[in-house]
What we know:
The chain has one domain (8-178): Roll (SH3 type barrels), CATH 2.30.30.100. It is 13% helix and 40% strand. The protein has helices at 8-13, 39-44, 92-99, 131-134, and strands spanning 19-22, 26-32, 50-60, 66-75, 81-84, 106-112, 118-124, 138-147, 162-169, 175-178. A ten-stranded antiparallel beta sheet has the order 4-3-2-1-5-9-8-7-6-10. Strand 1 (19-22) and strand 2 (26-32) form a beta hairpin. The chain is globular.
Amino acid sequence: xxxxxxxxxxxxxxxxxxxxxxTESFLIKGKVEGKFTRLVKTLEDDSRxxxxxxxxxxxxLLHGEVIKTPRVHVNMREVLFAHELVDGGSDFYQKRLSTDxxxxxxxxxxxxxxxxxxxxxxxxxxxxYEAGLQARSFFVMDECEVRGxxxxxxxxxxxxxxxxxxxxxxxxVSYLYDFS
Length: 180
């Protein structure tokens, strides 16, 4: 019995999924390259026009078609929201400090308009979506629930049903409800 050695491109697809990125058209699962801190800091890097995802699995949000590729470059303007499945920054205590800082979170619902209308509901720090207040283009939403996707018809999207948090691209939000 002979075993074939995996090619360089197929070996890249076997990387562990660490990150999720959602665009108007795709859920992209893989590992963001050049991420040495938390994903939100990597996304906030002003010098980036593209975020590179290794071992990428791209799931079409409308039809469920699955595309696997060793690497994909995602234009930063296309990112709606993201999630870090594995904390590569190893800053558990920093994360706990930021969530336990005593600031009461407010309920919010954000909507993205596109080929698939997506809603993300959850909790944020008050007015975190106001980029001018914090000089940031992304904000973190906790206790998230993603709606608008056909999770029964496209089971690969099920990972988005309930996320502990998402990193939302404020400039891509079409409209929002702030319940504070």
